[in-house]
């Protein structure tokens, strides 16, 4: 951000502390710890787990048995990046979807992630929670219902297919859709679908992420 110094100074003058930017590795490990700890509070979790966070510009994938040993990658594909680079039409054409799929598959295949390893797959962040709310057909977003929701590979594929064939105006009619996400959710769904195709386990959606990971680390 061009005004980051102004932001830092404003925070420090009001709170007495200077903001700290954490590196991507730590961010991903905190998300991993938050998702796993929240799930373990509900019951046993099969490990190792894969934690996925599909953002606007990148997608983080981390695998491990705990936050300290989890390792993974940050891939240069996110819902905004894929939409802007490949999915130019409204709705996207078959050719555009094909190009986007090939690009996503190339990054996943060269990521170094062993997709045969995870016994549990968690999705954190806005893309995963938005997809869960649509599958659940919620009339309004409900954190309690989204947290812990499970999406099968078939459900993810069907939803991705639907979103990629709908114009943005139709997507905006989804009750739980945030306007700022309506034009890019199709790209996010495509990314999640390509990951789902490589895994033998369903997607467990989690509302817990970085802040929960921080708390879990403090309590450890």
Tell me the name of the CATH class. Answer: Alpha Beta
Instruction: Give the strand order, joined by hyphens, for the main sheet.
Output: 3-2-1-4-6-5
Helix-strand pattern: HHEEEHHEHHEHHHEH
Overall pLDDT level: 92
CATH architecture, by name, is 2-Layer Sandwich
| Number of strand segments | 6
Kindly state the percentage of residues in helix: 40-55%
Per the CATH scheme, the topology name is Nucleotidyltransferase, domain 5
Q: Determine Rg (CA atoms, Å).
A: 18 Å
| CATH-assigned homologous superfamily | Exopolyphosphatase. Domain 2
State the distance separating the first and last CA atoms: 34 Å
Instruction: Describe the sheet with the most strands.
Output: 6 strands, mixed
Proportion of residues in extended strands: 5-15%
Q: Supply the helix-strand structural class.
A: alpha/beta
Domain count: 1
Fold blueprint:
Blueprint: H1 4-15, H2 24-42, E1 49-54, E2 59-64, E3 71-75, H3 79-85, H4 94-109, E4 120-124, H5 126-135, H6 143-146, E5 150-151, H7 153-165, H8 168-171, H9 185-196, E6 203-205, H10 210-219
Parallel strand pairs: 1-4, 4-6
Antiparallel strand pairs: 1-2, 2-3, 5-6
Helix pairs in contact: 2-10, 3-9, 4-9, 5-9, 7-9
What does this protein look like?
This protein has helices at 4-15, 24-42, 79-85, 94-109, 126-135, 143-146, 153-165, 168-171, 185-196, 210-219; strands at residues 49-54, 59-64, 71-75, 120-124, 150-151, 203-205. 49% of the residues lie in helices and 12% in strands. A six-stranded mixed β-sheet has the order 3-2-1-4-6-5, sandwiched between helices. A hairpin with a 4-residue loop joins strand 1 and strand 2.
């Amino acid at each position: 951000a061009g005004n980051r110094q102004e932001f830092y100074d404003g925070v420090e003058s009001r709170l007495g502390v200077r903001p700290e930017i954490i590196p991507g590795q730590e961010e991903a490990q905190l998300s991993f710890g938050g998702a796993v700890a929240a799930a373990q509070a509900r019951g046993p979790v099969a490990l190792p787990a894969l934690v996925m966070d599909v953002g606007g510009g990148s997608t983080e994938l981390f695998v491990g048995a705990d936050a300290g040993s989890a390792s993974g990658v940050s891939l240069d594909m996110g819902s905004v990046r894929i939409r802007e680079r490949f999915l130019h039409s409204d709705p996207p054409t078959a050719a555009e979807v094909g190009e986007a799929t090939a690009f996503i598959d190339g990054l996943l295949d060269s990521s170094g992630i062993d997709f045969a390893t995870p016994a549990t797959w968690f999705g954190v962040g806005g893309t995963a929670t938005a997809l869960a709310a649509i599958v659940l057909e919620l009339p309004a977003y409900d954190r309690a219902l989204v947290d812990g929701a499970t999406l099968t590979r078939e459900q993810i594929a069907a939803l991705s297919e639907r979103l990629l064939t709908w114009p943005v105006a139709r997507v905006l009619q989804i009750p739980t859709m945030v306007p700022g996400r309506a034009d890019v959710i199709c790209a996010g769904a495509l990314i999640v679908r390509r990951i789902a195709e490589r895994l033998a386990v369903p997607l467990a959606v989690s509302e817990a992420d970085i802040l929960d990971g921080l708390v879990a680390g403090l309590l450890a």
